[in-house]
Amino acid sequence: MNLKERALKLKTDIPALFLALKSSETPIIAKIFAGLTILYALSPVDLIPDFIPVLGYVDDIILLPALISLTIKFIPKETYEKCRIEAQNISQKNLARKWYYALPILTIWLLILWLIIKAIFI
Question: What pLDDT is recorded for position 62?
């Protein structure tokens, strides 16, 4: 499987993983690993800081897919396959393409940028 195929598979794996975590059939260990994966993905602290050229993103390219794969291994196959089919149906309906969900995040980043500029020039 080449890199492009893996990226496309990951595009459906992540929503399927989210749906599986909401399922009562998913074991608690899978939910714990998913929580750790999400915390690492959203954390500003990385093993290798992102501002280091090339190497900064290597841990994200390797570690995050590895954590996602590990989480999927703890979910029963039939539960995960059911969630994967549901995730594909959702993506086909384009329900995930609502741009206004990004507004709160954009607002927070603009506020942070404004505070940095204010601190530098005052």
Answer: 81
CA distances from 31 to 8, 60, 89 (A): 23, 20, 23
Confidence of residue 98 (pLDDT cuts 50, 70, 90): low
Q: What DSSP designation does 23 have? A: S
Assess contact for 47 and 71: CB atoms under 8 A.
Answer: no
Predicted structure pTM score: 0.59
> Following CA atoms 87, 106, 58, 17 in sequence, which dihedral angle do they give, to the nearest 10 degrees?
-20
Distance from C-alpha of 35 to C-alpha of 99, rounded to nearest angstrom:
25
Tokens of 60: 């994200």
Nearest residue to 60 (alpha-carbon basis) of 94, 90, 52, 113: 52
